[in-house]
Amino acid sequence: MALKNLFKKGLKAENLIEVLPYLLLVGIFVVFAILYPPFSRIRNITGILTVSSVFLLVAAGETFPILMGSIDLSVGAMLSSCAIVAAYFFPQGGLGMIVLAIVVGFLSGLINGLLVVLLKLPSFIVTLAMMYVYVGIATGLTNGYNISIRNRDFAWISTGQMIEGIPNVIIWAFIVFAVFVFISRKTVVGRYILAIGSNEESVKKMGINTNKYRIIAFTFSGLLVGIASVLLSSYLGMAPARLGDKYLFNTLIAVVVGGTSIMGGSGGLLKTLIGVLLISMFDNGMSLIGSTSNVQNIAKGILLIAAISLVMLPHRRGRLLLTK
Questions:
Q1: Residue closest to 235 by CA, chosen among 90, 64, 98, 51
Q2: Which among 88, 71, 75, 1 has a CA at the least distance from the CA of 271?
Q3: Is 320 contained in some domain?
Q4: d(Cα 196, Cα 206) in Å, to the nearest integer?
Q5: What's the number of domains the chain is made of?
Q6: Which InterPro entries does the entry link to (predicted)?
Q7: Which range marks the domain in which residue 302 is found?
Q8: What is the pTM of this model?
Q9: Is residue 259 part of a domain?
């Protein structure tokens, strides 16, 4: 669809920015398939999708605040705290842990949203502070140690195969993601979240309670992270105390590189999906060709700066036109 629109509208900067993530995705796949042929095998692609599953839900959660021009820096720490709190009270896994992890995620997101709205502080500050709170909870309950979960039924949630050859974690992530795509694209809540990011003052003049939808956006973020923590714990066979750390950086890159504006008002979950696949494919390919994690981090840092710069081009042009 994006490529079709590009040819219809002509090769302009804004249109090229729109399709760039798709071009990068195809380009990365082709490059690594040439450098390391086993990269393109079904087994490796399934592995990429498996790794992407938890990542996708966390990134989808992050997308909602960003669409409003806010940000949630606590998603990685929240991921660990949801898993640790649930496993602390239900070390054998099971339904109790699943429900508690999701509830903790929901409440964490709700608290983030309430603090942003009630304290009238930038979301950057609030969620940065809450990141340390969630890290303190996760490491404080276990002194920084992971909690092992030995339960075959619980492990089956992610590692089993309802469809032969496809791990359950991929299926559950796809189902949850599809539900939230529907919410973001087909419901009033989703449309208002995007509208507020585009022009909050205009939405307020329509008599819409923008604070309500800001709280909802952060609550969605927490809820998705809570669900992701269940899938991650089930897949690993443990509740990780600090594994959530790496998710924040990758999540921000995926959302922005996918095409969601850091300023809010444009983008969406489907674009985040492209960003997640792009980053997961890049990490996998770099590992297969023997690249170190340091080199990968440097490359992703450069990619993040480049992506934000490209996304900001239309805003800069708008300012220049206004000043002329």
A1: 51
A2: 1
A3: no
A4: 11
A5: 1
A6: ABC_transp_permease
A7: 12-312
A8: 0.90
A9: yes
